[in-house]
Specification:
The structure holds 2 protein chains of 2 kinds. By secondary structure, chain A is mostly helical. Helices cover 63% and strands 2% of the residues of chain A. Chain B is elongated, with a radius of gyration of 17 Å. The N and C termini of chain B lie close together (9 Å). Classes of the chains: A mainly alpha, B alpha+beta.
């Protein structure tokens, strides 16, 4: 989902929608673009595949045998939970006009979705800076739903092996409504304050990855370490599942990044290209770093590198050229390798599957580098021939503000939610239950 | 009757099985086990977390034979499973008190 509103030196706001000038009245009589809509429907499917089964496999492959099913259940069930939450209020809070901080309830239970169902959707209609699209609203909201689904599913990587399912359900519903939707609103809704600021986050470096990564870190700290962490053998039971999951994430990410162009054209084309380059670069840098420092290039390292690169290119996907993408990939591979191995053990937190190390850190790296590497012409239009998102100190500062705000809000809000749930029903399973394994204790099932 | 229990390196299983057939051994039970003796384990690393794994995969063969061929069977296993490197395994010989073939009800040496 693109976001590039820039304050000119005179303070006027310029809205630059995906390739089209905003013209709400005209747009109401137009028809949706078949090519754009077909691509967006495809992207939606690709992004959903990233959660089910992509993330389910990626995470489940890394846990011990006794927790495989429970880990998969988290991704699968979150898909169902958030789908409904998004429909009921999440979408409205994220993309309703509301104010700069919070949407509204105009689309509560998707009220009114039947009107103009086949017309091109205007995001932020009625606001000062509407964004005209060429796709129906149902497609837009469905595409966004897949983002709302994967973000909390990512957090699960931080509390793997020890969270109660009941607590998970409540936490996910609350987090989706009170943390995800507001941040999505700030960055992607035309009335949002980060949108107005002009920070660039093409596909969710802040909204998805930093948001989930910080929330994950807070979860890891609040829930505490797994029993036996640091002493017992917690080796992955089936890394082959993780490899398959990572591959699905990689391919699905084309929908995640290039679908955020909202159109099928040059923007999407470039986004696919830079996504691939960044992923590849990060695989190489993580693998080589590990090879040099630990002696062997591991499979887990290679797939983790891929995800790190994909995370880092997420905010930049619509704003950089391949050369910059390679830089982003190589940098994120090494930095996330350091974060997931050294930093984690140095600071002693148990972020079981590196939600923070890969998604949080990778998102921060990518969001900041976007401010440094953005190629103006990709966002050029009649009013801004040099581009709206251009590398430079101004853009970099905007990125820092967006990153900082996301970290602060996600961290504090997640902490409060966790504490409330802990005080009421408790977050963590008992020691005995943790020893036994979540599969049989929470779900009554075994991997045999 | 003797029960011969042999813990061997997994890749030696086929060789051992082939060595026993000519001796008249008509059946055996195989399980995948883990264990260690003098052979040291390995270190596995997952995203910077190092695990020293001392249990190594082995294969356990249990074969029930008549006492007259027990020694030959043991020698055949030793020869087939031997590599000369640490971790080749061990063989234990136990007495069998009674044996029964479930399908027919035959007992003792008729059951082997």
């Amino acid at each position: 989902m693109t976001s590039f509103v820039r304050r000119t030196s005179r303070g006027a706001l310029l809205a630059l929608p995906a390739l089209l000038a905003a013209a709400p009245a005209w747009a109401q009589d137009a028809v949706v673009n078949a090519g754009d809509t077909a691509w967006m429907l495809t992207s939606t499917a690709l992004v959903l595949l990233m959660t089910v089964p992509g993330l389910a496999l990626f995470y489940a492959g890394m846990v011990r045998k006794k927790n495989i099913l429970a880990t998969m259940m988290q991704s699968f069930f979150i898909c169902a939970l958030v789908s409904v939450v998004w429909m009921v209020a999440g979408y409205s809070i994220a993309f309703g006009n509301g104010n700069a901080w919070f949407g509204d309830l105009s689309r509560l239970f998707l009220a009114g979705i039947g009107t103009d169902w086949d017309k091109p959707f205007v995001l932020g209609a009625g606001s000062a800076t509407p964004v005209a699209t060429t796709i129906p609203e149902s497609t837009f909201l469905m595409f966004q739903m897949t983002f709302a689904i994967i973000t909390p599913a990512l957090i699960a990587g931080a509390f793997a092996d020890r969270m109660k399912f009941s607590a998970l359900c409540i936490f996910i519903v609350a987090w989706s409504l009170l943390v995800y939707s507001p941040v999505a609103h700030w960055v992607w809704a035309p009335t949002g304050w980060i949108f107005a600021l002009g920070a660039a986050d093409f596909a969710g470096g802040t909204v998805v990855h930093i948001n989930a990564g910080i929330a994950g870190l807070v979860c890891a700290l609040v829930l505490g370490k797994r029993l036996g962490y640091g002493q017992e053998n917690m080796a992955p039971f089936n890394l082959s599942l993780a490899v398959i999951g990572a591959a699905l994430l990689w391919v699905g990410w084309f929908g995640f990044n290039a679908g955020s162009a909202l159109t099928a054209g040059g923007r999407a084309g470039m986004a696919v290209l830079v996504t691939q380059i960044a992923a590849a670069g990060a695989v190489l840098s993580w693998t080589f770093a590990e090879w040099m420092l630990k002696g062997k290039p591991s499979v887990l390292g290679a797939i983790s590198g891929a995800v790190a690169g994909l995370v880092a290119i997420t905010p930049a996907a619509g704003f950089v050229l391949p050369g910059s993408a390679l830089v982003i990939g190589l940098a994120s591979g090494v930095i996330c390798f350091w974060a997931a191995t050294s930093l984690k053990h140095m600071l002693g937190y148990d972020d079981s599957l590196d939600a923070f190390g890969v998604h949080g850190v990778g998102g921060i790296v990518g969001a900041l580098l976007t401010g440094v590497l953005a190629y103006g012409p990709l966002t050029a239009d009649a009013a801004n021939p040099d581009g709206v998102v251009v590398a430079g100190m101004g853009q970099f500062i905007n990125q820092v503000i967006a990153v900082g705000a996301t970290i602060a809000f996600s961290g504090v809000a997640t902490y409060i939610l966790l504490k409330i749930i802990d005080a009421t029903i408790g977050l963590r399973v008992t020691e005995e239950e943790e020893r036994e394994g979540l599969d049989v204790v929470l779900h009554g099932e075994r991997m045999g | 009757m003797k029960l011969i229990i042999a813990i061997i390196k997994p890749f030696k299983l086929d060789e051992v099985r082939d060595a026993l057939t000519p001796l008249g051994v008509q059946g055996l039970t195989v399980s995948e086990v883990k264990g260690f003796g003098r052979q040291k384990g390995q270190t596995e690393i997952y995203r910077g977390a190092e695990y020293h794994v001392s249990f190594l995969p082995k294969v356990k063969i249990e074969v029930a034979v008549t006492s007259d061929i027990a020694e030959q069977v043991v020698e055949a296993i030793v020869k087939a499973a031997h590599t000369g490197k640490i971790g080749d395994g061990k063989i234990f010989i136990l007495d069998i008190e009674r044996a029964v073939r479930i399908r027919t009800g035959e007992t003792d040496t008729d059951a082997l």
